[in-house]
Design goal:
Layout: E1 3-7, H1 12-19, E2 24-29, H2 35-42, E3 47-49, H3 58-71, E4 76-79, H4 88-91, E5 98-102, H5 114-121, E6 125-132, E7 142-149, H6 156-179, E8 183-186, E9 189-192
The protein binds 5-O-phosphono-beta-D-ribofuranosylamine.
The site of 5-O-phosphono-beta-D-ribofuranosylamine (GRF) has 13 residues, from helix 1, strand 5 and helix 6.
Length: 199
């Protein structure tokens, strides 16, 4: 696997991926001030900025991102706090190889502020989901989910912190499975091939 991680912000998921020694070939951000870029540099991984400004359409921006990814020999793309809706221009360049993490138990609470949505809804349980990316927003086939309780005195910050701990665990794990060829997708369902254990 030759992995790219796309970020827009702090990049704590990127850090978890780097710490797991996954084969990250490049980190791309649409924002030049994203701290994720600094995390990449510290890890000795190439970091590139492809600003979304100045492109006439989302597709044109995605085409520029694809060009940058190809230059680094990428075959798999992990969105990690990448605050852009990606288009078929990117998805078709890496079919079945674009994944995302969403801070809720999909299909609940898609889109922005998923933790706030969970609180406002009065959910008792929420969590995080790693999923394949399709043309919708947080709608693709689910790879791994992890749940956390919502506590009575939670606010958005405390709940987000609890969810992030799960994110940092399940994202590297999902990418490891994808890289090892252990995921197969049938319709909406992803099967994880189990390893043969000692008998
Ligand atoms: C995470 O909660 C991720 O699920 C969401 O944005 C946040 C990014 O955090 N899409 P970080 O940049 O990885 O720290």
């Amino acid at each position: 696997m030759n992995l790219a991680v796309l970020v827009s912000g702090g990049g704590t998921n990127l850090q978890a991926i780097l710490d797991a020694d996954l084969p990250v070939r490049v980190v791309v951000s649409n924002r030049k001030r994203a701290f994720g870029l600094e995390r990449a540099r510290r890890a000795g991984v190439p970091a590139e900025v492809v600003s979304h400004r100045g492109f006439p359409s989302r597709e044109d921006h995605d085409a520029a991102v694809v060009t940058a990814l190809r230059r680094h020999g990428v075959d798999t793309v992990a969105l990690a706090g990448f605050m852009r809706i990606v288009t078929p221009t990117l998805l078709d360049a890496f079919p079945g190889r674009v994944v995302n993490i969403h801070p809720a138990l999909c299909p609940a609470f898609p889109g922005l502020h998923a933790q706030r949505q969970a609180l406002e809804h009065g959910a008792r349980v929420t969590g995080a989901t790693v999923h394949f990316v399709d043309a919708g927003v947080d709608t693709g086939a689910i790879i791994i989910q992890g749940a956390v309780p919502v506590l009575d005195d939670d606010d958005e910050a405390s709940l987000s912190a609890r969810v992030l701990e799960v994110e940092h665990r399940i994202y590297p794990e999902a990418l490891r499975l994808l890289g090892a060829g252990r995921l197969t997708v049938k319709g909406r369902r992803v099967r994880i091939k189990q390893l043969e254990g000692p008998r």
